[in-house]
Amino acid sequence: MKINIKLLTLAIILTSLLFAVEIVGQVTAAQEAKILKSIPSNVVKKTKKKHRILVFSRTEGYRHDAIPFGNKAIELMGKKTGAFETLFSEEMSAFEPENLKEFDAIILNNTTDLKFEDPVLRKSLLDFVRSGKGLMGIHATTDNFYDWPEAAEMLGGQFDGHPWDGQGVWTVEISDPNNVLNAGFKNKKFKVNDEIYRHKLFNLRKNGRVLISLDMSDSVNLSVEGVHFTDKDIPISWVKNFGKGRIFYCSFGHTPSIYWNSEILAHYFAGIQFLLGELDAETTPIDFDINTVLDFEQLSKNLKKISHYKFGQSREAHKNVRQFVSLATQSQNATLHVEKELDNFLKSNATLAGKQFVSHLLADIGSEASITILAEMLYDSSTVEMARYALEKIPHKLADEALRTALMKLDGKLKIGIINSLGKRRDKESVPQIKEMIFSSDIEIAHASISALGMIASEQAITKLEKEKNNVAPGLHQEIEFALLNCADALLEQNKNDQANKIYKELFDASEKNSVRHAALRGMVLTSSENELNKLLINVMLKENSKIRRGVPMIVREIPLDFNISALIAALPTFNAVEQVRLLNALSNRKDDYILQMAIQLSKNENQAVRSDAFKLIGKVGDFTLVQYLAEISAQKSKDSKTAQNALYQLSGEKVDMEIVRLIPESNDEIKFQLIRSLRIRRPVDIDSKISNTLLQTATTGKVNIRVESIRALQFIAGKAELQSLIDLLIKAENTKERKALEKTIVVTAHKVNSDSVATQIMLSELSQSKNIEIRRSLLLTLAKVGHSSALPAFRKAVNDTNETLKTAAIMALAEWSTDEPIKELETIIRESSNPTHRTLALRGFVRMSNLPGDYSEEEITNRFRLAMELSETDNDKKMVLSALSKQKSFSDFQMAAEYLDNQTLRAEAEIAVVNIAAYILKAHPKEIKEVLLKIRKNSNDTDIITLAQKNINEIEKYEGFITLWQLSEVYSNENEDDFYFEFPPEKNSKNVKWTTMTEISDTNTPWQVNLTNIFGGNFCVGYLRTNVWSPIEQKARIELGSNDGIKAWLNGKLILSNDISRTVSAGDDIVEIDLKKGWNTVMLKIRQLGGTWGACARIRNVDGSKIENLKYQPWREE
């Protein structure tokens, strides 16, 4: 038994028990049966060995309802075929190198927005695949890694929208009919009900093989709102190699029904076999001839529109051209054709706004052919910036020559821009000219020249910076220091460690500022030998000032794991307690013996914070030899007990669980309890039943708390072999607490090992033999929760038993049945029983089953609730029905709940049901729902309900009432100042600002926001919006603002908001309470762009978020 299995299951447990429920709990028995039936029995190729697969389904963004279905399908696939076993996790620690090394493949099931912020985990995943392992992505897997390009490229694509949503039926085609992964499909084209992703492809057609695509000749696929005219190549499934490893991605998997589609499951299974190296599949790329679908006439038409473009007008043509260019880059010939068209555009009489857009496109696709026209534009003050931007990014030596020539001919701010570009291009040949400019009388030119030398980092540049460090103007001294740091960093990238170290040492001089010294210290560490590194850091920790010491842990994290830093660890006790804690945290990714020994020593420190961090470190780097020590501390009633417990739960190593088992019989009761609990939390895989046998022994002897904890641990460890023993324990249980724990353990175990039938037969046998009413009652309750249909006859018999206690227990158990199979029996009891208790129990069960998931239409579910109301005899029963109804999500259920709003007795429950259901369906039926919610807001006596109703009304009105009448300024930027804080002319009420009134909606897909990308384009700049608001009275209100990226807002000339942030536009991200004066009020927004798209939205509401009547808007008016 090896640690990786246990550790991954541990990762699940440490979150909460709910995780295991989510993996399988949302899949009904009927759905599971459909999945199992659909899994292929005749596999393409028998596996050589049984593999282990990690199935990971963490979501930090949208969470798909299909995740449990995907998990269940993979789990059953492994069991049915015998090809692999699965372990499930949602903990990032699953990707630690020690945890991954025993797995053969990873499946990312609908993960979203994964960050992988820890560089160790990033490297671990990439190394795992490169080494020859497999990685599969299901559906939303491409909705990740937005700040990790290497991982996105490894997958082959990144989510770029889904116009083909999960409500539609789409035609797809097999792109590679002869590929072994497609052997399960009967037809070259077929229809599927699922959500299909559009992807931004990362060289997929060059290094991957597309297996399935969306049929873009299909009229339905083409007619969907949101489809771009450049949507020609929409891959759905593909395979590719990554290092020695294998990648398989499939966009199918949004809709639960996908997981009982036999052809798609066959595709999945073949893909998994490919990942595991059991199935050879062709991965050679198949070209997609983009030239056959590109329409250059469309490009010309859109460029013609752009040639007349002015800021403030629609940018629809810009979007079309940008998409066209992106598509054309898949073909070298098409790219050259596009480049020629763009070059001709720059030579034309197009507007400056149009030329700016085209120049930015050439920055991405331009070649030697574009340099001549761009070089000419450098000498026109109106085009120099756009030309420089493009030349800066074109990878050709002629671009350097053009910039160097311009450097000697231009002056002032234009020269500064050229210097910056040459610096970014690291053009060594420009150093002789630039180095003389560091003494320029123009301080901005001097700044730019020093910065450029730092970026170029050539030997000549370094020599000049070092020589003149103390000769430049006082204000430039620190500029040279930062430039030298850049030089040293560049040398480090080139593995010129000795040269880099020399610069870092000079900059670490005590006379330098702490910010410079910290950066220099980091560089010294990264360029030093092991011996020098240890001496350096010890000396720093003992002699340097506190600000420098505070930065050491961050630097320590960057030291390669194979570096020996034992001397630094040994010196830890000589540092103060706070710094010991910081360094311990920084060392937590190391598993060296000397770190473990130091952690043990520090776990006995007099400072509790130090002890706490030491125990955390022991949990990460410890082994089986620490089990007894941690268990002893855990058993004490001390401040360290909890952290020691957690460390015991996290210990890794293949001997840990067996050491726990070994210690249980010989330990006192307090320690024994902690050891047993640790097994419950760790959930080890019990292959040979040794762990279960030990727990079965402790479950029958000793104190009650130890027996109960043993039973609870068996819930996660016991298997099919232990079912008989668990049921025997249930029959012999001495108290209610043990009996309840055993009932739950039996149910969980039966479900976990797919042995519902086996458990049911054992319990039915015991039921038929037992005369003890309490035992029979307990067996009935457990049978009901297992929910196997073979037990129903026994219940039908028990509900007619003459013993009222048993009869009541049988009805109670039927009411708790895990499926809705006995719902008819419950209806009969409600209608025919003369016992009020029995009728109430049956009604509760009937209502509960009405809420169970299943293949029922909305009408069928609502009819069940209507029947429940019909069967209810008391107001309390009816209130129970309405309370259950509140969990539904259909319009028909909403309508049913609304029918009881006028019933004074039931109104409170009806109101709750209405507002709860409304939250799920308000977008589909906004008008009808808003009408009912307004009625509740007016008539309800419950302030909480009124608040919820208003919240739903606000959501309905969320995109109502946004200001669409604006005037826009031109865009601004200042190379030497932070644009967000720099006051451009609009903030100074300058009369020279050129304002343009918006004449049309900027983006028809999101009419509530101003899409500044479509209007301005732009890159790293700011723009201003202004309008006037007329209020009939003086009143308090609130303004709801959204922006991409940072935003400042003024009302009547007063700054009311300043939020320097990077984000996407979302309605109401910022809400500011304001005072509207009677008459006209002025609103002005400043929006900052930090690259990519940008935009803004604004609306004015009452303080509670409701609509203000009679406001008027006018973009501008004469004073």
TrEMBL record:
Transmembrane segments: none
Gene3D superfamilies linked to this entry: 3.40.50.880, Galactose-binding domain-like, Leucine-rich Repeat Variant
InterPro entries membership: ARM-like, ARM-type_fold, Class_I_gatase-like, ThuA-like
Domain ThuA-like, first and last residues per copy: 52-274
PANTHER family in the cross-refs: GALACTOSE-BINDING DOMAIN-LIKE SUPERFAMILY PROTEIN, SECRETED GLYCOSYL HYDROLASE
Protein name per UniProt: Diguanylate cyclase/phosphodiesterase (GGDEF & EAL domains) with PAS/PAC sensor(S)
Source organism of the structure: hydrothermal vent metagenome
